[in-house]
Amino acid sequence: MNQSENIFIPMPGKRAFEEVSSRIKKLVFQGLLKPGDKLPPESDLAKKFNVSRQTIREALRILELSGFIEVQQGYGGGSFIKDTTLSKMGHLFLDTIRLERITIEELTVARLENERAILNHAIDSADETDIAALRENIEQAKKIIKNNLMATDLNFEFHKLLAKATKNNVLVILMELVLVALSQVVARTTPDLETTASAIRYHEKILQAMTEKDRAGALKLLEAHLKEVQGQLSKSPEAFKISA
Amino acid sequence: MNQSENIFIPMPGKRAFEEVSSRIKKLVFQGLLKPGDKLPPESDLAKKFNVSRQTIREALRILELSGFIEVQQGYGGGSFIKDTTLSKMGHLFLDTIRLERITIEELTVARLENERAILNHAIDSADETDIAALRENIEQAKKIIKNNLMATDLNFEFHKLLAKATKNNVLVILMELVLVALSQVVARTTPDLETTASAIRYHEKILQAMTEKDRAGALKLLEAHLKEVQGQLSKSPEAFKISA
DNA sequence: TCACATTTGTCCGTATGTATC
DNA sequence: AGATACATACGGACAAATGTG
């Protein structure tokens, strides 16, 4: 945040807080502000941009909701640069899903299609690091399930790792969105240890098929796995209701 | 916005503007506020929620950025309920793409995979209305191109119509996101009439194959079409740079 | 435990800008 | 042109949170 930011020319048709927020955004895109960096206090920003604190605050709300900053109150607090845009997209995706009254079936179909593509690419592009991460994920999940605990988060993580193995960040993002929505559904189903354990077994077999480059086998396992998951999920058909 | 909203209990750990925005959100989810409805003026909202106007304004910024309302200044203006969540997701998707330095190749691969799935489903689930809309889109595009004008928007629309024909709104949303990003790239390439004309010819052939339920043929045409499009797009490899 | 400093959160009052009648 | 009904923006104040000494 250098001194030249002092000159603030109000743009025609653009509100002051919009101008401020997109200026700060641009600094992030340019790499001049990186995750971990702290913005000056609101009062300082107000002086630098030559606007009121109210305007700064509205700009900060935008940056916050967009996933560019996180705000902490109190001593040592302030606005910290963070990249949580993906997570924020997930929230918006959930809003859209609620508004459009989307069903679990639609979501599952979309998931299956995306994950089919992901698996197809991952078989070709996964390196040792990816395989190791997937294996580690399964081992962790096994440990947890042995203690009769749910390993839901780790099971979601498996599918995210699979997406990462494609080396295609767009596929990662799209999968993440679908999984955010699905995790919301899962959070409302009654936990079932056997389903979770079955999922881990499927993960293990899928990874096995991947390492053997058995494309057809891996895809069949994936379909069977997701079909089973859907069966469990469709027991709570109204999972998207209300709850803002 | 009924009278009972008067009682505003400040939630612990939740900021006042968050509480206000999620209350209004909830009214939208419940259908008590529908697109076209107008919220009371900021000053009235402040009284109803028993908070200051500044707090109301921060809540409105959140609702605005989330795609729940649009705000107009002046006489007869105010906050109008609208559902533009999908479009707002598109903006955030672009932000993420810029932050993650995603390439056109990644985007195109993801697009191809998604559109493959869409075409596969659309062949089964498209009804006469969908086919008619697709045909109409092609006719419109043909007319425009005859006058030596670009039909880029209509060509994007074709693919959105294809997604709608699947009757799966999640596939529609994911496709929309990818297309928003791609349209940003296209906007920075030098327009080329021949490429556009070729796209329309492909659309026509794809629709033909669809009506004949020629799944394999339709998929092959789609791949050839998108490969050609990618070739054109990759001429401007830095299309995502800067520009907040 | 207790003051103290820093920074966000919230409030009030007021003035200006903008679109419509 | 003038009145009206809004959003937009400003300035000053105090409350609340969160750390330090």
Describe the protein.
The structure is a homodimer of 244-residue chains. The first copy, chain A, has 10 helices and 2 strands, in the order αααββααααααα. The first copy, chain A, has helices spanning 16-29, 42-49, 53-66, 85-99, 104-125, 128-146, 152-164, 169-186, 193-211, 215-233; strands at residues 69-72, 78-81. The first copy, chain A, has 2 domains: 16-83, Winged helix-like DNA-binding domain superfamily/Winged helix DNA-binding domain (Arc Repressor Mutant, subunit A), CATH 1.10.10; 86-240, GntR ligand-binding domain-like (Four Helix Bundle (Hemerythrin (Met), subunit A), Up-down Bundle). In chain A, a hairpin with a 5-residue loop joins strand 1 and strand 2 (78-81). Chain A has a two-stranded antiparallel sheet with strand order 1-2. Chain A is mainly alpha-helical. In chain A, helix 5 packs across helix 7 (152-164). In chain A, 66% of the residues lie in helices and 3% in strands. The longest helix of chain A is centred in the middle third of the chain and has 22 residues, at 104-125. Chains A and B meet through helix 1, helix 3, helix 4, helix 5 and helix 8 of A and helix 1, helix 3, helix 4, helix 5 and helix 8 of B. The structure holds a DNA duplex (21 and 21 nucleotides).
